[in-house]
Amino acid sequence: MSDTILWLIGAFAVLGAEMLIGTVYLIAVSAALFCAALCGYLDFSLTVQCSVAAIVTCLGAMGTYFLRTKRKSAAEDVRLDEGNNVIVEKINKDGSAYVNYRGAKWLARAEKGDLKCGFYIIAKIDGNTLVLTEKN
Fold first, then answer.
1. Contact, 97 vs 86, CB < 8 A?
2. Which regions of the chain are under pLDDT 70?
3. Count of domains forming the chain
4. Residues 73 and 7 both lie in one domain
5. Based on the domain organization, do 72 and 104 belong to the same domain?
């Protein structure tokens, strides 16, 4: 069996595993095996084929890593809670309050000044604390 056929069998096996597992990194490995199969088809030596497979795998994994981290940080930039309304009903001794938001009790504090009973807007979320501003 030729090198090309062996590389293609490996590429399709890895691609099938990718479909079952769902990691994006195996696509890079499968692409590298396809590139090695192309080198085998063009009658390059086995050393060149293995080198191409290794280089394309590394480049593909790094590219996938950077795309995933860029996409993850873009998703973190979407702050869906900011601008929503909450009602402060009771103030704690330390000036904070517990408010009901999205079906759970959240600790809340004022962005500026002290909290008073009333309606507020979520300015940001600091860990597990809602930072509130007064509703105009």
1. no
2. 72-78
3. 2
4. yes
5. no
